[in-house]
Amino acid sequence: MGSRRIAIIVAAGRGARAGGGGPKQYRTLAGRSVLSRSASAFLDHPEIDAVRVIIHPDDEELYAEAMADAAAHPKLLPPVYGGAERQDSVRLGLESLKDQDAALVLIHDAARPFVDSATISRVIAGLSAAEGAIAALPVFDTIKRADGADRPCIEGTVSRERLWRAQTPQGFRYNEILAAHRAAAGKVLTDDAAVAEASGMKVSLVAGSPDNMKITQAEDFGMAETLLGRKATMQEYRTGHGYDVHAFEPGDAVILCGVEIAHKAKLKGHSDADAGMHALTDAILGAIGAGDIGDHFPPSDPQWKGAPSRVFLEKACALVRERGGAITHCDVTLVCEAPRIGPHRKAMRETLGEIMQLSPERISVKATTTEQLGFTGRQEGLAALATATIRLPMEE
């Protein structure tokens, strides 16, 4: 049984209905390929371990050009060739993962470039209670059934009760969906959920997104450009604040913002007592309304005894990414008489940047004293304050 979550991006089609200009997955939206936009959603998702793109044998050069911005991404596996039909391509993609320790697989159409992180997370979560899970939206339009005439007329109205529009990604346990695709070879089924259904698997529906459109026809590119422009402007910025205090106790070094500094004492705490990183973690959690560090890592839980505080900060950053957001800037102030912080600020910024996947230019670390007043002035401990600015998609 594998342990990894792997995404397959199906990009082997010809896209004839999308008009001229080559296969639709390699055409650009605002200067970036459709395929790159689709793949990046999974490459950047913290719960996805690897991504494999399935391409047409004639498209190697197109693929290399379209994915140039992600070519060095550690999660991106080499592409493999697909087959004559989408179903064949998915099966070949699944077969190619036999040596990748796959536990769960998410299958996504390259022509859906606006899939968001939250939708991916919902599909993954849906697999905890079902053999398969797909993103989908309930049908609200009135559905008409037509006759078979050249100029069709309405033959009847179809009840929309319990009808859903299937999207991708569609997620499954790897061994089960591979077996289902092997058994379905030669049959014509419309999506991977249908393949799973044919094998008797129970597939759950999770909320998709209205923005998760599929580019099918030429006019869809215009709609996609409009959507892209709207999404680019519909952002909101939030600021969170964090504060932490730790007392000194006998020791020979403190850890602050991930950097060990020699000192006549150490900081007392359940974890490694990195007050700077704790304050920053709380600031990030506060900006997204996700409680505080104690909610996610309670000090009563023995597994966090002595834990490195980067674990807490990485979790907070992952929660931001799951919401489709990004950290744009953070500022940490350390309040203490000693040790001296100045010689270590550069290393602190670089360490925080590595953990947060953020340029050190967007990270500030400062230090101040209380002019020998209060508990910090008496060198009984130190305090840390932090702010974090987060960019998030604005909820409509």
Structure characterization notes:
The strands form five sheets. The protein has a seven-stranded mixed β-sheet with strand order 5-4-1-6-10-7-11, with helices on both faces. A five-stranded mixed β-sheet has the order 15-12-18-16-17. Strands 2-3 form a two-stranded antiparallel sheet. It is built from twelve helices and 18 strands. The model has no long low-confidence stretch (mean pLDDT 92). The radius of gyration is 25 Å and the shape is elongated. The chain folds into two domains: 4-233, Spore Coat Polysaccharide Biosynthesis Protein SpsA, Chain A; 235-393, 2-Layer Sandwich (60s Ribosomal Protein L30, Chain: A). The protein has 396 residues and is α/β, with parallel strands linked by helices.
In short:
With 396 residues, the protein is of the alpha/beta class.
Radius of gyration: 25 Å
Q: Report strand order across the widest sheet.
A: 5-4-1-6-10-7-11
Structural class: alpha/beta
The CATH class of the largest domain: Alpha Beta
- The CATH topology of the largest domain turns out to be Spore Coat Polysaccharide Biosynthesis Protein SpsA, Chain A
What low-confidence regions span 5 or more consecutive residues with pLDDT below 50? none
Total count of strands:
18
Please trace the helix and strand order, writing H or E for each element: EEEHEHEHEHEEEEHHEHEEEEHHHEHEHE
Mean pLDDT: 92
Task: Note the total helix count.
Answer: 12
N→C terminal distance: 41 Å
State the helical fraction.
25-40%
Shape: elongated
In terms of DSSP E residues, the strand content is 25-35%
For CATH, the homologous superfamily of the largest domain is named as Spore Coat Polysaccharide Biosynthesis Protein SpsA, Chain A
If classified by CATH, what would the architecture of the largest domain be? Answer: Alpha-Beta Complex
For the record, the count of structural domains works out to 2
Largest sheet: 7 strands, mixed
